[in-house]
Predict the 3D structure of the following.
Amino acid sequence: MNNQLHWLQKYNVNGPRYTSYPTALEFNQKIADNFQRAAAMASENKTLSLYFHVPFCHQLCFYCGCNKIVSRHQEKSVKYVETMLQELKRRGEALKHKPINQIHFGGGTPNFLRPEQFVEIFTAIQQDFDIAENAEISVELDVRHVDEKLLTTLKACGVNRLSFGIQDTNPEVQIAINRVQSNELVGSVLRWVREIGFDSVNFDLIYGLPHQNKEVFEQTLKDVLMFDPDRISLFSYAHLPARFSSQRKIKDEWLPSAQTKLELMLFANDMLCGKGQGEGGYEAIGFDHFAKPTDNLVTAQNNNQLHRNFQGYTILEDSDLLAIGASSISHIGNVYMQNPKKISDYYDAYSIGEHLPELAGRILTHDDLIRANVIQSLMCNFKIQFKEIESQWGIEASRYFKSELQSLKTFEQDGMLETSKESLSIRREARLFVRNICMTFDTYLASQLNKRRYSQVV
């Protein structure tokens, strides 16, 4: 703990989460229709992942930094679904020969959509694509707006994984973030979920929320262990009120200090993994996920085969990602492309026309691909095998990363890294600071840090 407090004081700077490299702040190129199609045809990836972004929410959660539209008018989703299906038809044309191994609905609140709208979307997918028999099909749900009809419809559509945004079970915390949901409600929905027979349930939790302390968060963790989800995602609250106006309703004095946040994360790790009070029973995955020992994420991590994409940690090897909906980010071959963020601009972009809309994005250079590989290895497996990097990319790592390896000596001197001629690995107790180490390999970072667009790493 003393080491980690020292590292916190020294390294708790602002930095990216590295769901992509380069990050979305570097999507400053214009990707034309012909290049989008060419990228799809040239991609060597054999499989396809689909992501649908549903931005609508029934009410505002004050902590949220997602692209969202708060509305009580469900009919607003009709035009949105129509536009998503137009986009799927047009952008998916060049990718329909690839089997789908993953479908994910995120938001916003995907269950803002009616059950019959999910049927409409899955019918459209099945008409033009082949869905692999073992595909992971998941939906993020707001437990406050779930009924048995929705769950049975999702199951009939082939959905096998659900994720619930629980965040915290304490009433005072829930009121402060404007997301009030009782344990009784959560329990009743989980009973439906298990009776219907979904394969896996994930809970999202957040540490660093207003009024959280060890006692409060311990009770939340006990409640979660009682509910016994298959996976848990434990995220750090990123307080950026200058960027997200809803966060201005959360007073600074309500928030735990950086040291308390670290203590909450370490306590949660011990409790979930069975090293503290409480039964635990989970294995740590990456730096912020947990899964049961029998979960395929654990097997993948043990075999250094864990992967990471915009939807989180996964066992799936690299696939092309076709992202549908406002603000969503696709990764096709060596190209990132992002849809318009404003819903009006999104509608305009996919109105009937001969060409696909020009999208903001990034064409990855050879250097980008090398660094993305290194950062992915660190984020997933906390190590770099230099011979593997050299063999894959035809470089001499000691020369190519000469300045980066020199910069990493600071982390090594602080006891965070173990290095040799063959490899570099992050010590277990330093894994919370993996983003700092990844930042060393980010050639774009210096131009972005002064813009204060990133959250603190812990």
